[in-house]
Amino acid sequence: MSQRGLLKRLIEKAVREKVPFACHFDLTYRCNLKCVHCYVVKEDRPELSTSEIKGILDQLAKAGTFYLIFSGGEIFVREDFFEIAEYARRLHFALRLMTNGTLVDEQVADRVAVLYPDLVSISVYSTTPDIHDNITCLQGSLSKTISAAKMLRDRKIRVKINTVLMRQNIDDYLKVYELAQSIGASFQGDPRVTPRNDGNLCPLRFQINEDEFFRVWTDPIFSPQTVDDVTKPHFNGGLGDIPCGAGHMSFYISPYGDVSPCVQFPIPCGNLRNDSFEKIWYNSPQMLGMRSVAVSSLPVCSKCNLLEYCRICPGLGYIEEGDFRMPSKRVCREARIIRDAQLGG
To answer: Could you give the count of Cα atoms lying within 13 Å of 117 in the half-sphere of its Cβ?
Structure first.
């Protein structure tokens, strides 16, 4: 059996047995960049301490979590990042790191290599400095980010170059793809701009138009990338009648200890400062409500002729409509364009 086939089997088992297989853990909302499309809204609450995070990791390991994705904010802003990451490795998580790369130097790259991460994802929005740096609001950030990616690849670390496709950079993704190829990194682009975690839709003003979206979905660069990452909540391979993996086998933890099904599904299920992870995962009314939903029972989506082309996202339905059982207008638009692209319309 192939590695991907084995992983699908694990996902199917995790869903059946309600194992919290993949965790997206934002260690901090602090960041040295101010990206114009950022979903983060910092709150006036103390972030989890080192000891609190270690205690949470102990709980996740006991619960059966396999993939642990550390993100932010910017993970390297936390002075205790390596203490946390080294502790996570001792617990045998498959560790993935998401970073903008601008704080990575030779010493940091050496310490990352010793972690043996499964993957390091780095955001590059354009190979044109003015475009990339205007998105990050930090001049010189592109050169630092590319340098970080190369340093990590020099140490044989798997690197993925991620790009959010927006109106500012939609004409530059081919060069970002070529950059990834040139340094031996994988590439993933996604036209979904995420609303802010307080529900504010302000970042959506940067989303691409329908013609640009059609161009993306007819470009062979993107065809293997649509739902190819099993750690992503919207991955549906092997999930059958379940709309997405969020709340079934994947979940999100904020820097304040809040637990929700997904970073794009900010429905509060509990806080790890007050309750155990096990209690939240198995008994939270919100988690149980999410698990009660099947595609065949969704009042609108189940009857839609675009269903086979749809990347259903209960979180976006929740943000836009106040009900995760209702379809997101953006997701419906995507499905229509994807259908037209696949049928040559």
So the answer is: 26
- Say what the pTM is: 0.92
Mean pLDDT of the chain: 90
Of 150, 159, 140, 156, nearest to 105 by C-alpha is 150
- State the burial class of residue 55 (Cβ atoms within 10 Å of its Cβ: 0-12, 13-18, 19+): middle
CA dihedral over 144, 160, 40, 107, signed as positive or negative: negative
With 0-12 / 13-18 / 19 or more C-beta atoms within 10 angstroms meaning exposed / middle / buried, residue 191 is: buried
**What average pLDDT score do residues 156-184 get?**
96
Of the chain, the percentage scoring pLDDT greater than 70 comes to 94
DSSP per-residue string spanning 157-174: --EEEEEE--TTTTTSHH
H helices present in the chain, as ranges: 3-17, 50-63, 81-90, 106-115, 129-136, 141-154, 173-183, 210-217, 277-283, 285-291, 314-321, 329-342
Tens digit of pLDDT for each residue in 2-27?
Answer: 767 777 788 888 888 889 999 999 99
Cβ atoms of 261 and 269 closer than 8 Å: yes
Q: How far apart are CA 213 and CA 218, in angstroms?
A: 9
Distance CA 124, CA 142 (A): 7
Q: Are strands 159-164 and 186-190 parallel, antiparallel or unpaired?
A: parallel
Check whether 232 has a pLDDT greater than 90.
no
Q: How far apart are CA 170 and CA 207, in angstroms?
A: 10
What are the distances in angstroms from CA 342 to CA 55, 71, 191, 218, 319? Answer: 47, 33, 17, 7, 28
Question: Tokens 């007819």 sit at which residue?
Answer: 218
> HSE-up of 29 (CA within 13 Å, CB side)?
20
Q: From residue 103, how far is each of 125, 152, 234, 243 by CA, in Å?
A: 17, 12, 30, 37
Per-residue pLDDT at 228 exceeds 50: no
